[in-house]
Each structure stands twice: as C-alpha cells, then as structure tokens.
Amino acid sequence: MLEQFIKIKNSALAEIQSVKNSAELEALENKLLGRKNGELTNLLKGLKDLSSEEKKSVGQAANDVKQTIESAMAEKKSELARAEWVKSSEKESMDVTQPALPSKSRGHFHPITLVQNKLEDLFASMGFMVLDGPELESDYYNFTAVNIPENHPARDTQDTFYIKKHPNWLMRTQTSSVQVRAMQKYGAPLRAIVPGRCFRNESTDARHEHTLYQIEGVVIDSGINFGNMKAVLEQVVKNLYGAETKLRLRPKYYPFVEPGVNGEITCVLCQGKGCRVCKQSGWLEIFGAGLIHPNVIKEGGIDAKKYQGFAFGFGLDRLVMLKYGIDEIRVLKSGEMKFLEQF
Ligand code: DAH
After folding, report:
1. In the prediction, which pLDDT does 111 show?
2. Ranges in the chain annotated CATH 3.30.930.10
3. What is the pTM of this model?
4. Residue 226: what are its φ and ψ, rounded to 5°?
C-alpha cells in the first residue's frame, strides 16, 4: 500500500507540472482528491482496513503524500491565476491612438464667448489688435487718465469696489481703462480692441449686473474723422445683426471723447416698429463712442496735434441679449444649466 501512495504522489506531481490552465487543474484535482472517486481519496479510504500497526506507519506516509499533493496544487493554482491575469490585462490594455468616442455631455462656449469671438474675428480682419488689461486697476488708468480727474462728477456715475488697504486700487468700471495703457505701450498709429470684464457697485435687476463685459475700441492715426468712426461701427452692427440693420448716432457726453455719441440700432425684435424692449422708440442703444479727447491722447504720450482718433465701447452682455432674445441679464452668469445648454 505504501508503494501505491508513493506511485500516486510521483504521478500526481508530474501531472500537476504539465497542467496548462486552471480548468485542467480543476479536473486533475477532481481525479485525485474528488470526494467520491478521487484516486487518492479511495486509497485513503482503504487505510481503515489495515491493522493498527500498519495504520501507524502507512497512515503517516499517506498524510505526507496528501499534503505534498495539495500544496503542489495550491502553488500551481496561484501560478496559473497570475499568468491568466497578465494575459487578460494585455488584452484589455489601452490603445492611446484610438480617437475619443463621442460623448453626450461635451462642453461648449458660453454665449458671451461666442459673440466675443465673432467680434474679435471681425476686428482682426479690419487690422485691430486684441488687447487685455487688468481687472484690478489703478484709479489713474480707470478715471484720471481718461479725462475724469478726482472730484469730477462723472466718477459718481460709475461706482465700483475699492480695495481697503490700497485706496488707489479699484475693480475697473470700464475697459476704457486700457485706452491710455495701449497708447503708452504701442504709440501711434494704433488700432486695438479690448474685450474684458468690468465691475459696478449697483443693485442688480433684469438689465444691470455688478459684473459685466465690455468691448472697447481705440483707433489713432493722422487724419481720422467722424466718418471713419461711423463706417467701422456700421460694419460691426451689420455683421452682428444683419445687413438691413440701421445705425444712428446721437450726441451724448462721455468725458474721454469730444464729440461723444451713443449708437443706436433699429430694434432687432420689432424691426423698428416699436415694442416693449425698445420702449416703443424702434431704436436700441448698444454703444458709446466719439472722437478721442486731446487730453487722453496726450496722456497716452502721443502728439495730439499730429494724431486724432476715435474710441467706442460696447456692452457685450447687451449685444448677447439682443442677439439671442434674452430679457434677463442675470441668467448670463448664473451657471444655470437649463439656460447654458441652449447654446
Ligand atoms: N466706457 C463707457 C461706459 O462704460 C463706454 C464708452 C463710451 C467707451 C464712449 C468709449 C466711448 O470708448 O468713446 O459707459
């Protein structure tokens, strides 16, 4: 009987070695150790018929055989599991060159960005640079440099947020703050627009926000006149609202221009017939503009006798609202997905 155990052990160890996958290993385990008809199981069952003398010696050896086979099996099992895992993870590995699958929730531009991009393209095609400026600005560039000295009443129309420890710093109220910065940096001739965020300390309603976007424009050259300004601005409104849109300019005071105007277009909602949005006038105000005041040109370090210029400022939020028929300015920065998903 002892020889039988030794024989089983040797053949079992050889068979375990040659097993190629876990299914084969399982079958072998059944064949040897299966409860009902396992070869080793059957042999072990025979132990009970031995004399107690034989039981002692053979029993011990039988136990060793069983343990050796079981631990060889366990070792093979983990070896196979490891190999199979490596193989399957190779199959699953990523192909980094595969194009991304279309996703349902892809981001897109905000309507303000859409209109800003459109205007940047248009102005770039007319030879304008697109400039940037700081939102936290000095009192000097926001007011003084553009002909609004300290104690000038025009300051009252644009209250903003001041920085406690720095009384000369404020959140800019207008992109006009970049006019003199641009002149000082680039000199004349100059053609630039400045899109950007501005801030006002005022209570909000459907048409007013504490944070708003503007697009400023500055053109400086020799021989610039009012007609040049009107031609450029006409291009802009026709590009934005259609070729049939009419533009009218009416006198309005802005400290940094002389003469100053406000620009109105035929109401895009009623086509000039008169409605609630245009307050029955048929016209909508969308920008301020004018010929740059010589004081501002001088402040920019440019010879005001040699050079003239015009400037304009659009409220970008307003352009967006009119373009898409939005009657509440506060939704623009609300982060409302229901609103944003429409663009
Ligand atoms: N900065 C003005 C505002 O915030 C808008 C403006 C008016 C800009 C006339 C200009 C301009 O450049 O010429 O109300």
Report:
1. 96
2. 111-340
3. 0.71
4. -60, -35
